[in-house]
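Note to self: keep these together.
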Amino acid sequence: MSKKKIVLVTGATSGIGEGCAKRFAQGEYRVIITGRNREKLDNLKTSLEADGTDVLTLAFDVRDREAARKAVESIPDDWKDIDVLINNAGLARGLEPEYKGDFDDWDQMIDTNIKGLLTMTRLIVPSMVSRNSGHIINIGSVAGDAAYAGGNVYCATKAAVKAITDGLRIDVADTRLRVTNIKPGLVETNFSNVRFHGDTQRADNVYRGIKPLTGDDIADVAFYAASAPEHVQIAEVLVLATHQASGTVIHREK
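Structure:
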């Protein structure tokens, strides 16, 4: 019997991260789930274990580098050989013009979407390189391809994810590691609710008149990339809803 692979998913308590945890569990991976909310992590752990999945939870904020380091160092020896790292933790805050932006919103996006991703990459990937085996999947966004009105800093962070992903792929080209950037369009999660600081009505309007993607849709793409033959590297995938042509072109039914 072959040894089960291990996936680590950041931001696993909702949306795309939760979808990835469930999809890889279905694919018979052992699953490490991370997030800030201990209760949500425990609930997801219970749900996954009920289906026979081995689950390890790590409660920390990727913005806190020291907490992230301690969490990774606490991983038991039989869980340390992580095969797939999914850097999913991320968020958008606000939709104001850049000259009216909130400093705290900017810090939260930059510290989570860029620095948090870098922290987890730095903590996990060296072991992959030493084993000459592993896969890093970063969750970017169509927003990283071109800025849109009010998206300024968020778009910049997702453009950074693309550059960081491409850079890492170059850095490990002499190894068997694979690096993937998945760029979703409209995905109906709590993303917009977070962006608008809990304004549910405003968040719901984002998805008005169109059937958006789900977190499970993106999880399917991530699992496909991880399941490709070892000589196949899915470098980048842009995933849009059928009636979304780009970050700004969306057809909405009246």
